[in-house]
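Re: duplicated header lines in exported structure tokens

Our pipeline writes sequence and tokens for each protein into one text file. With two proteins the header for the second block appears twice in some exports. Here is an export where it did not happen, for reference. First protein block:
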Amino acid sequence: MADYTTNELLACTAARVLEDRKAVFVGTGLPMIAGLLAQRLHAPNMLIVFEAGGIGPQVPVLPISVGDSRTIYRAIAASSMHEVMSMSQAGYLDFGFLGGAQIDMYGNLNTTVLGPHGSPKVRLPGSGGANDVGSLSHKTILIMRQDKRKFVQKLDFITTPGYLQGGNSRYEAGLPSGSGPFRVISQLAVFDFEPVSKRMRIFSVHPGVDVKTVLENSSFEILVPDEIRITQPPTKDELDMLQKIDPVGMVIAKR
């Protein structure tokens, strides 16, 4: 049995994608933990940007939300949502984190409705800043649970563009060249996108998970590379740091 939880695996896997001397737009929950973990272990000069306006903080422990006062602890700026979105539009944000209720093979996300838009079965929170993050960040990291209801052939609504219809369609629609989904991280695997078709492809499967299980939990065909990597499990240093970041167990269970 693994000596780590799913949330710990997701947080560590996401943190490893982040790079030093890059700017990352983080949201509440796992993205926030991943950003703090990366900053403390391998990316000390990474610029964390919170949606509510905290820019470049050195956060002591996990904030409750992006509006918590701790998001401006030792920050270089206590700004505003308008300023943060302007930074995104100007092309200053390297990484953005997103989640969603549905995702398709091209990384498009739905966080608006389930069912017809005019008479939905479920009305979801909507875009918030998600469209801005997915449209304008250089790379987006998508974290979400995987099953056939979430990995769907066709979205009920496109809230946030991924690679749209694949190929060059994202760039032909006027979105910044070189931007788009970079990784999708689920409880089963990590995915990237095939460079030409822009279709979702297995990047690595998590320890104890086989390719068949990954494919069975998607309503669309996921591409399978010739070589299958195994996701590196969390290290002791990562697990110890997660406990320091989230000492009361808001997202990471207390040990």
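Second protein block, exported in the same file:
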Amino acid sequence: MSTVLNQIRNMISGLYFPRIQVIDIIEIVIIALMIYFCMLWIQRTRAYSLLKGFLIIMVFIVIATIFRMSAILWITSSFAPTAITALIIIFHPELRKGLESLGTRNFLSSIFSFDNKKEERFSDRTISEIVRAVNEMSEVRTGALIVIEQNILLTDYINTGIRLDSEISSQLLVNIFEHNTPLHDGAVILRGNRIEAATCYLPLSDNARINKKYGTRHRAALGISEESDAFTIIVSEETGRVSYAYLGNLTTGVPASGLREELHQIQKDARRDGDDRRIRFRKGQVKKHEE
């Protein structure tokens, strides 16, 4: 017993305990806050998916190091400088946006604000207004493109349109997409229970597996669903058929009941991370709704 105690004393005596001062605690808190808000910002951009992929690669490298896979480690060390440059290029848009946000007046207020509008889920009334508007436009074959923002902010796409910041109503949505009106061209982006902007430009999908019969609206809906986790509703101007794009997939021929059910499911899962519906069908697949 005495031998064990002596060994413990020797181990403790060999340890160095630095003297912690107040400035050290402040420094630790500042660094922790910087890391926290950086991760919070990354989670709300496309960089979050890229970062998860990068972490998977890092785990693979750690495993290769543990099991001494010399060939893989040699390849990794050879391409390390190139990989760093590639990461800077890949994250360039996000890095630029982050640096630009530092110069905005509301940067600190957006960080330390406890009244975060992004946490708000859209209400049942909003769902009813959207479904009613979609049905009315479908009956008269009025083309429409409605984007519902979720976890990933669509501020860049909102800035390409005309800001409205108005309450969602079926009458307003129908009026926006009415033929020969100033706001009918482009997409409407919804955030929570508000219409943020109209006439917004969306990225077009270049997926070769999508049938050529689908026009610009459908490809724009697929494009934004590939770039973010937004839920996009499309009303065809030629046929009046209702479709939606979500997580890189297009579902066509959606009845009112199916659209309402999907919106309620999106409402429930709005803040849930790792939605298991991501693996419902392959990316880029077109699925006809089964009534």
